[in-house]
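Note to self: keep these together.
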Amino acid sequence: MTTKDRFKSIFRSKPSGDDPIYGHPRYQKIRTLGQGSYGVVMLAVDKQTREKVAIKFWPRGAECINVDVQRELHHHSGFNHPNVIMFREVFITADHVGLAMELAPNGDLFKKVRDAKGLAEAEARTIFQQLILAVDYCHRMGVANRDIKLENVLLGGDKKNPVIKLTDFGFSKSDLDSIPTTICGTPGYMAPEVLMGREYDGRMADVWSCGIMLFVMLYGFYPYDDTREIVLKDIPIPDRPATSQEVKRLIRSMVERDPKKRIKMEEICQQPWVAQGVSADFLTRNEQYVSASSEHRPKQSKAVIDAILYEAGLERPEERQAREQKLQQKAVAANRSSEQGSGSSAYKDPGETMEW
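Structure:
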């Protein structure tokens, strides 16, 4: 059973009216907003400030509180950007770990695009400009998202002038970590190199996902029917609805199957179609945000977050190292036993025993 399946089974075992923050001194549940890949998200009110917040919950225990959750919270806590959902705090209850975040009250971009059956090019550009600022900022902070999609872009501001908010860093990866090889994300948005399980640059995979998002915003449907087409077929851009040649060229450059030929994020920001209608400081705005973020002190340090996660069941580094050493020793012993057992047996053609 995968971690995701175990998570779902744990939550299904709870009564439908279960309230993870019942009796909490600060937060009070209003209603459930939804369930993502690894967390239930609820709308709550901060009883001290009367602000509405979104809270994502993970069940306590090593089955759900793992290094992926730790990485998500470490990365998110360091962000400070108007187009990224604001991190408030991590807290622990008797049964759960909660992440309190800024609330984006107008739903997600998937619902907006679905209901409109595609957006006008000018509206799509306004949203795309903000998306690129958010993703470029994360990259400058040394983090690739690896799960950029319409559902992970929330809408703040007012409905006529939405402010997009990038959220969900459950698959995020730092430049300081090992080179990504994990097949992760959402299939319709995955870059070919991710689907093929090769080493890849998470930032270039994000560029591909942003290109798919732009396509769906404009045309109201996904460009590929299955993952085989993503690996083998150049993106098919329809004639209807009519869109400018500039945006078509931009999409093709972002959804380029060879990541070495794919346009880079800093080049996207310089495209005339992207820069249209924005202020003169658009191209340098993220430099200011990154500089401010380096001086910004998160409400909770990584050490404080880790202390909460260890209490909730996260395996400590020394425990993980000891467990991995035991597994390695067992594997070596099993291999030796196999070699000794096969030493006196007659030779067999490997083709006779190979199983696929």
